[in-house]
């Protein structure tokens, strides 16, 4: 990548992305955050910009943004930032860890981030501004929507489709050929075995068995 980048955020998610940028030897112009970075050792050598307005001083033709705002269920801050700065004409980096396994026949849209140990198989596609987090699996021919977060340890079987703004909680699983509509939260540890309507929250099944003495 020949462009320079500006990292947005200074929290845990941004820290992981910064380390990935360093490993890829990408030119980092600094980071933007209203508060100082908690990981001082990692961020100390980079310039700190405290306001979003500071981004506007950079030429959108020569710099790309890295969206280091974390993704939490029901929180639109990450998605809103992406949308607002796309409207202003900025582009976002698609970033894949060197320790991830992404098929050459998979498709990643703008701003997708793929973390260490993640696997994306052949024929899969991931929509813009989505995160495929640490150790998660997206199997063959899946279609993952925009602004999705596939949290650590998620397994998504083949030919699953998710629409926009879906959060797959840590350790959740989806069986093959399922359709998950927009604005869905798949709770941590849940197993999805049938299609999910929009604006739903899926909780793990809890079965209690009383043992007779």
UniProtKB/TrEMBL annotation:
- Domain of life, per UniProt, equals Bacteria
Database matches in InterPro entries: AcTrfase_PglD-like, Trans_hexapeptide_repeat, Trimer_LpxA-like_sf
> Does DNA damage show up as a keyword for this record?
no
The residues that hold substrate are 70
By its UniProt entry, which SUPFAM superfamilies does this protein fall under?
A: Trimeric LpxA-like enzymes (SSF51161)
- GO terms for MF: transferase activity
Site feature: Increases basicity of active site His: 141
Q: Which residues bind acetyl-CoA?
A: 149
Active site residues according to the UniProt entry: 140 (proton acceptor)
Write out the entry's keywords from A to Z.
Answer: Transferase
Q: Which CDD domains match?
A: LbH_AT_putative (cd03360)
UniProt record similarity statement: Belongs to the transferase hexapeptide repeat family.
What is the name attached to this protein's record? Acetyltransferase
């Amino acid at each position: 990548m020949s462009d320079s980048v500006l990292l947005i955020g200074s929290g845990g998610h941004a820290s992981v992305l910064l380390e990935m940028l360093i490993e890829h030897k990408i030119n980092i112009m600094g980071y933007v955050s209203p508060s100082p970075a908690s990981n001082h050792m990692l961020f100390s050598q980079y310039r700190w910009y405290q306001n979003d307005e500071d981004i506007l001083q950079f030429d959108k033709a020569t710099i790309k943004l890295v969206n280091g705002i974390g993704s939490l269920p029901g929180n639109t801050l990450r998605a809103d930032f992406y949308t607002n700065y796309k409207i202003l004409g900025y582009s976002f980096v698609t970033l894949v860890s060197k320790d991830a396994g992404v098929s050459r026949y998979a498709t990643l849209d703008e701003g997708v981030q793929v973390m260490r140990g993640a696997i994306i198989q052949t024929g899969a596609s991931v929509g813009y501004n989505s995160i495929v987090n640490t150790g998660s699996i997206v199997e063959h021919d899946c279609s993952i929507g925009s602004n999705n977060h596939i949290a650590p340890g998620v397994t998504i079987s083949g030919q699953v489709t998710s629409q926009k703004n879906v959060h797959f909680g840590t350790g959740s699983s989806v069986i093959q050929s399922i359709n998950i509509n927009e604005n869905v939260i798949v709770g941590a540890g849940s197993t999805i075995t049938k299609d999910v309507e929009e604006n739903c929250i899926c909780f793990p099944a809890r079965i209690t068995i009383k043992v007779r003495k």
